[in-house]
Amino acid sequence: MTDNQLIEALGGPAAVARLLGITAPSVSGWKNIPTDRKIRLAVIAEDQGVSTRKELFPNSYQDIWIELRPNAVA
How many CA atoms lie within 13 A of 7 on its CB side? Predict the structure, then answer.
């Protein structure tokens, strides 16, 4: 899922701005979602069934969310 697809899946720039507590023009101006914002959106997207954190961060999810590591103890 691209960053633009994620924004649209979460309801568009205005909705994403509300979720993050920022202005819609800020979101509209992004070519790529800043990593810190994308991490927050990944959790929201997973809660809403839009995408998983692993799908959004396939190469680094285990470094961001240690509970998703293959050998993590629940």
Answer: 21
Q: Are 53 and 46 spatial neighbours (Cβ–Cβ below 8 Å)?
A: yes
Contact assessment for residue 8 and residue 33, using Cβ atoms and an 8 Å cutoff: no
Report the distance separating Cα 67 and Cα 5, nearest Å.
Answer: 26
14 residue type, one letter = A
| pTM (two decimals) | 0.87
Domains in the chain, CATH or no CATH each: 3-68 (1.10.260)
Tens digit of each residue's pLDDT (9 = 90 or more) over 16-73: 999 999 999 999 999 999 999 999 999 999 999 999 999 999 999 999 998 988 876 6
CA 61 to the chain's CA centroid: 11
> Cα dihedral angle (62, 64, 66, 70), rounded to 10 degrees?
-10
> What is residue 71's DSSP assignment?
T
